[in-house]
Amino acid sequence: EFNVCFTTYMKKPVQSRSNNNNNAEPEQTEADDIVALDDTTKGILPLEIYKLVERRREVKKLIKEKKNLTDEQLVQYDIRQKAYKLTANSLYGCLGFKHSRFFCKQLAAFITCKGREILMQAKNIVERMNYDVIYGDTDSIMINTNSIDYDQVMAIGAKIRNEINRQYKSVEIGIDGVFKCMLLLKKKKYAALIVEKTPTQEFIYK
């Protein structure tokens, strides 16, 4: 979405950063220490991540269609799609790990900052649609739809998803699951009972 790469962003000159600090702008962070160079040419990192995301999407499509796939093949495909996801996510870790050859603390901070902004904007959109956001994690929000009808919940989820995705060119959220009940203990500590509907209209719980 923001074309974040070594080839599209650069650190602000020391003098520029110093001037910003003298102006006493609130909460100056490392994310403020970079400036966009080019927003028209795709950077190397976004291109590579796009390839991984597209490959994962293809594998997930195969899993969903389940055409002539054995249980063993389904497990293998699931492992593959998770591997693509972890590899794509690990590029952010490489930017923030000081011993990585791709280390750039400012880019890592910028990504975190933009991710937080997107999450907060998603929360605001949900609340404008008169639904309650009961919890927000690193890259997700959990919503109380005030409904116990599975089909209605999925329809509400699709409506919210479409409204949020409409705000962006590349960022795309999805419905990760429907919770029958949820226990929130504290930040990063929660448990939930996931409900899914089978093609035979039966419900399974995980």
Detailed description of the structure:
The structure is a single chain. With 206 residues, the protein is an alpha+beta fold. It folds into two domains: 9-111, Alpha-Beta Complex (Palm domain of DNA polymerase); 115-205, Palm domain of DNA polymerase (Alpha-Beta Complex), CATH 3.90.1600. It has helices spanning 14-22, 44-65, 71-96, 105-128, 150-165, and strands at residues 9-11, 34-36, 132-136, 141-144, 178-186, 189-197, 203-205. The strands form three sheets. It has a three-stranded antiparallel beta sheet with strand order 5-6-7. α3 (71-96) crosses α4. The longest helix has 26 residues, at 71-96.
Set out the fold topology.
Elements: E1 9-11, H1 14-22, E2 34-36, H2 44-65, H3 71-96, H4 105-128, E3 132-136, E4 141-144, H5 150-165, E5 178-186, E6 189-197, E7 203-205
Helix pairs in contact: 2-3, 3-4
